[in-house]
């Protein structure tokens, strides 16, 4: 089947929620604080409050609690906009939105616990299975350590994935949601890039989690939501997973382009520099187009194996292309672009770090799925 199959109708949630406009107002604030956030390895309160107030956490939250149930396209545009000012701010904003979408799989009582008092509850998620849980009366006892939980410093809740006994079969995987105070945070994030994301380690030591704050991981992977019929709450993870990570990188690359262009003046402007910036800009625009295409697939609900595999390919190729673009820009800017006070070197480090994410690697994301589309299944 061709990935260019006729598009399904757009969802009813296509109206503008105002998030993109709010992101445009957030961008200069994020840029202003970016140098200190990078040096201090944490986003300041002014920025995290602004992320919350802009509406990122409520973007996928249920409308009955004041959420906006917005589109993937609007969220992507908003994340890219913030990323032009600060990649770490965009990363945390993106994951705050997508974590709320994950939380939509909780039972109704879990929805009440998270959003009953505010749709702007921030959830940080540890997607990779790393702990264990055992069933007890009324819920689960959970223990484990989850690394790389971005935005945990300002999150109200965390959601983590753990294995539970599967009877005679292999262990099953479930997500468990815990409020601030039920877990501890170890400051283990020391990456050279994306420093301000605060992607630290969450530690849970034999904590009781009620049944209404847990759901089976298969529900999220399949996109079948037993609690909500809202279209954005019923999306297969394969189709959407990488978009949350690549959109901030597109914004960061656009920010790097602007930073580089601002440094090429006077004697530094040459035919060679102009050509290099031109080549980088083409790569950034191409990556942006592919990421926009991914959001369109989601909003039009084109959940065929071909479209979902292409989404994975688009994200991994965009990551590769954006790394190439920022490398060109660093070369064009020269030594001055690597000064600690220059925004370009921060974008360079952030893009390098972000594109190392497992969701943006060919071998762990797109190779098997999209090669099967192009070449057919392995015999």
TrEMBL record:
GO terms for biological process: L-leucine catabolic process. The keyword Oxidoreductase applies. It holds the Pfam family Acyl-CoA_dh_2. It comes from the Bacteria. Keywords: Hydrolase, Oxidoreductase. Residues 245-361 form the Acyl-CoA dehydrogenase C-terminal domain. Coiled coil: none annotated. GO terms for molecular function: 3-methylbutanoyl-CoA dehydrogenase activity; flavin adenine dinucleotide binding; hydrolase activity. This is Hydrolase.
